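thread from #wetlab-drylab

HS: before we spend reagent money on co-crystallization trials with cobalt (II) ion, can we at least see a predicted complex? here's what I'd submit
DV: go for it
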Amino acid sequence: MTHTTVTTQPIAGQKPGTSGLRKRTKVFMEPHFLENYVQAIFDGTGRVAGKTLVVGGDGRYFNDRAIQVILRMAAAGGAARCIVGQGGILSTPAASHLIRKRGASGGLILSASHNPGGPDADFGLKYNGANGGPASEKITAEIFARTQDIAEYHILEATDADLGTLGESHLGDLVVEIVDPVTDYAALMEDLFDFDAIAALFAGGFAMKFDAMHAVTGPYATAILEGRLGAVKGTVMNGVPSEDFGGGHPDPNPIWAKDLMDVMYADDAPDFGAASDGDGDRNMIVGRGAYVTPSDSLALLASKAHLAPGYAKGLAGVARSMPTSGAVDRVAAAKGIGCYETPTGWKFFGTLLDAGKVTLCGEESAGTGSDHVREKDGLWAVLLWLNILAETKMSVADLMDEMWRDYGRCYYTRHDYEDVEAEKANAMFDALRNKLPGLAGSDVAGQTVEWADEFAYDDPVDGSHAAAQGLRIGFVGGGRAVFRLSGTGTVGATIRLYLEQLETDASRFGLDPAEVLKPINEAALALSDLAAMTGRSAPDVIT
Ligand code: VG1
Ligand code: CO
């Protein structure tokens, strides 16, 4: 087999965002694009000679072709071993677990997460380090720098590796080890949760629907929920991964998981519903007629996690991303444990988890996780909920009511303005940023600004600094608005507006969130002048 060195040159625009590099699939398929980026990852992480890497993806279009390229390049770079999920499949949390369990140097995960897949949709590639978590800011910067000065890449000329057969084969000197994608992950879940209690719950007639959204969690959920826990066949909907996720957005929120929402709000709704995203790291939770916001779900899990065996000792602390609501802060304060506020993106939780400062963490974008891996974990969140439901014998709606009575209710919503012209979005942010220092005390659209700032973060463990992480405005009376630019969009700029209102009066816990948040929305729109600056009169997606 010959090892080829291909001379190449930098290809513009390979700056990894919140979670790796995401582009149109067609861009990834252009000559040398994928190869350049893979070489930049290898070079930016100290090269792969002698290393073990985990490789797998969410099964979207181009997943298998991209894996073949990665394996041939790992072989050319002298890597010792690549551990690959059978059929090229690994969910993001399962990949994180494999990296940790096998002591790998890192892993390459092929996914654009909740973005649609297919030849005319999106593809992505992310690098996770030896702790199993997304590459740190420092490593990401290294990889980006290499995309700017790359001059050649190395690839083995070889026929395709067989990704379908379990066991070891060789590609040059590289050992390609094909593993079952579910086995190790399922064993980890069984360690953390009381599978007997959950199985007894199902045996007692408890009904559930899990929407895998034609994405990677299908095989995991089928094996664990229907296989090990005895949930009836058909509990898992859309459980066979497809290259274009059945033509949908594998994004678990009430808009894109509408099939599940319809089931859960019907007269004969089951007790519990859940969904996960393209790569299996996100989760949506919905009870019978009771949608749970991700921020509330994080708070509920923090308040009751001790009911599951893996967390029986209690939590060391919790963390949430800045735009996530303050619900979990109130739980942490009552429990007397630490609570950290980090920038958006799971990589910022990694140092806190590694240092043992937090056990549980989460984001408003439907990501929750713990120190069992270094990624958010969709099915894990569902199983923790099931363990809590089995122990408390309460309904989802009753659990939420109880939590609001104990801690208050944080009404919450997010408005996304998608595909905004980047120049206009930046101009809006610049103008608002300049206004912030003088805002405190001023009245706008009937609200009084209490404080305003641009969020920046100093990592308490490694001291690293992250600037410009979102513009936030706090209002008198417990309201908050946050503006952030998305790092995962693939066309134009996506402006996210996060709205929150704390309510502590129990007689006001049953209101329509949209109504409660309207005044904060109006104040935020007035302050930012969003409509005039961007030409947008309404958000594209409200979650
Ligand atoms: C979005 C979410 C963020 C999440 C990121 C990756 O980022 O807001 O909370 O960490 O996606 O999620 P952004 O920059 O577009 O707001 V996923 O499931 O990729 O892996
Ligand atoms: Co995801």
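DV: The mean pLDDT is 96.
HS: ok that's useful, forwarding to the group
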